[in-house]
Amino acid sequence: MNNEFKILVVDDEQNILDVVRAYLEKEGFEVITAMDGEAALDIYNKETIHLIVLDLMLPKVTGEEVCSRIRSNSSVPIIMLTAKADEDEKIEGISIGADDYLTKPFSVRELVVRVRALLRRSYKDRIPMADILIFNNGDLEVDIKKMVVKKKGEVVSLTTNEFKILTILLTNPEQVFSREKLVEKAFGIDYEGFDRTVDTYIKNIRQKIENNHKEPMYITTVYGSGYKFNPNSSEVKK
Questions:
Q1: Is the pLDDT at 152 greater than 60, yes or no?
Q2: Rg for the chain (alpha carbons), in Å?
Q3: Domains of the chain (ranges plus CATH)?
Q4: In whole angstroms, what is the distance from residue 52 CA to residue 175 CA?
Q5: Distance CA 74, CA 66 (A)
Q6: What is the pTM of this model?
Q7: CA distance 219 to 121
Q8: What confidence score (pLDDT) does residue 127 get?
Q9: 3-state secondary structure (DSSP) of residue 63
Q10: Is the pLDDT of residue 117 over 50?
């Protein structure tokens, strides 16, 4: 199945590109590389890319800007590479749209494992159910199979991980999920995230689907317990 996936690896160090390409191609993936942000965006706009490995420190266009531009219209999985190991930098990466991250220097074998896991979560583990869920007379519309979310008829772009969390919540309406349970159900027990990561995902989702993210109608906080989805009036399309 691996040869069905095309991976874009973006880094300004040729030796990193060569090693990562060699390992990923050995696993059967098709790999395209770029050494600057401008080239990465050009490739992404021309090719069907299933996952991006993206360095932050890039010439011409920064990794943060590349991620933000892609996230404006796509939920393609993104693994971010960063030389900064502190928690705030990782949270910033997630805030701008990364689904996972690795700190340099990193193990290429670990990167391959994370690539496989993220592809599996993104393209294999979708929940079988009705095609489209509609809430509040069309205010919010979620197409599970196509991974498309619309707010008042306009498409909003969620990252793969944000979509996974939203799906878990809205397919279990009124059920309260702790941060730990959300991580387990959405990403598996081996996911290495932390509480603040889940809070960041929830904050991002609210900003995209709520009329007022400071007074959320759909995803509400149950203090001391976690989060739940309030469906209000809803309908289902097959």
A1: yes
A2: 18
A3: 2-123 (3.40.50.2300), 132-237 (1.10.10.10)
A4: 34
A5: 12
A6: 0.56
A7: 22
A8: 40
A9: helix
A10: yes
